[in-house]
């Protein structure tokens, strides 16, 4: 349906209109479709850290987009 892409695109548009310099988001490595949306929107993976915040061991990822 494209809702994830539309949501990310709207967040980026809002941030640009408001004069933000950078967007930062955090996700997990297993959320492949979300990560693809972020990458296609121009976000860059800047950090990875293992964690157990939700039970199983995951790799948390920090993504940034310079505006």
TrEMBL record:
Statement: the UniProt record of this protein carries the keyword Transferase: yes
Keywords assigned by UniProt, alphabetized: Transferase
InterPro entries: Acyl_CoA_acyltransferase, GNAT_dom, NAT_camello-type
Keyword Transferase: yes
PROSITE patterns in alphabetical order: GNAT
Residue ranges of every copy of the N-acetyltransferase domain listed in the record: 1-67
Protein name as it appears in the record: Transcriptionnal regulator MarR familly domain
Taxonomic source organism: Thermobacillus xylanilyticus
């Amino acid at each position: 349906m494209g809702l994830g892409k539309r949501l990310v695109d709207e967040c980026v548009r809002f941030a640009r209109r408001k004069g933000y310099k950078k967007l930062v988001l955090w996700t997990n490595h297993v959320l492949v479709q979300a990560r693809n949306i972020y990458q296609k929107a121009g976000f860059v993976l800047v950090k990875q850290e293992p964690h157990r915040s939700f039970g199983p061991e995951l790799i948390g990822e920090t993504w940034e987009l310079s505006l």
